[in-house]
Amino acid sequence: MTPASNDAGRTVDPVPDDAQLRRLRLMQWTLRGTLGLALAVSMAANVLHAAPDPVARSIAAWSPLALYAAIEVMTRVPIRNRLLGGIRIVATVAIAVIAGVTSYLHMVGVAERYGESWQVVYLLPISVDGLVAVLTLSLLDIASQVRTISAGLPVARQHLEGGAAGTPSATLAAFAIPMPALASSPASDGATASRTTTTQLDEPTRRRRAGGRRPASRPTSAAPSQAKTTASPDDAEPLPAELRHLLEPAASAYADLRAAGTPITRDAFAAALRDRGLPLRSAKITPLLTAVRDRCE
């Protein structure tokens, strides 16, 4: 993320950009290459341990290929339906178990055939299967981040291009949450003006006006007004910077729920965001829902 600068030269909260997305995609391809290398080692061990027959070797090479295809589907196709997504996860885990057991047995046989010690025979296959598991989980995590940033990037670009002359202050105004205006009263305005005038006088003039007398007490009528003024700002915590680029799609999901007459709960709001390709964790749903509710109502 690249921080922007406001009119006073101070940095403001960053918005997602292409550099962040490119960095994640480069990590994706690096992990995919490493995963392909690990599965190639597993496939080679399967083929070496199989009988010297094309059919037997094809059967032995199938399970690593099936696992790689399942991992690609899991990392590239987002989950939109919970039931179908659960079935897909269970099927992928089953394929991974089958491929892991097959690879382990074949690698044990290959290591025994080439005279390795019993420690190497039973521990070496675990390193290959463990590497495949680590790379698969890393790919799933990065794919989730890529989908989240890709969904928020068009909204951020729209606000950046639609601001007044493209100024950073216009970008901040687009992401700002409306705040209630402070109430004012004639009594408080008069007290403020009196204090400003007294402050602008120099020290000798203030002493001559005081004449050695104690300063008069402030009017008690201004106290309730001042108390009302200080009690009116919104006490809500600001939205975290990492969620500000999701305000527009979240507001759209909130509006669709209201239009459909659906009770707006945290689970319903999270499901609506998932339908838009924004699977967020529970810790991020609550502040985002609060900010959208304050903005829309």
Automatic annotation (TrEMBL):
<feature type="region of interest" description="Disordered">
    <location>
        <begin position="184"/>
        <end position="237"/>
    </location>
</feature>
<dbReference type="Pfam" id="PF10935">
    <property type="entry name" value="DUF2637"/>
</dbReference>
<feature type="compositionally biased region" description="Polar residues">
    <location>
        <begin position="220"/>
        <end position="232"/>
    </location>
</feature>
<dbReference type="InterPro" id="IPR021235">
    <property type="entry name" value="DUF2637"/>
</dbReference>
<feature type="transmembrane region" description="Helical">
    <location>
        <begin position="119"/>
        <end position="140"/>
    </location>
</feature>
<feature type="transmembrane region" description="Helical">
    <location>
        <begin position="83"/>
        <end position="107"/>
    </location>
</feature>
<feature type="compositionally biased region" description="Polar residues">
    <location>
        <begin position="185"/>
        <end position="202"/>
    </location>
</feature>
<feature type="transmembrane region" description="Helical">
    <location>
        <begin position="29"/>
        <end position="48"/>
    </location>
</feature>
<keyword id="KW-0472">Membrane</keyword>
<protein>
    <recommendedName>
        <fullName>DUF2637 domain-containing protein</fullName>
    </recommendedName>
</protein>
<keyword id="KW-0812">Transmembrane</keyword>
<keyword id="KW-1133">Transmembrane helix</keyword>
<feature type="compositionally biased region" description="Basic residues">
    <location>
        <begin position="206"/>
        <end position="216"/>
    </location>
</feature>
<feature type="transmembrane region" description="Helical">
    <location>
        <begin position="54"/>
        <end position="71"/>
    </location>
</feature>
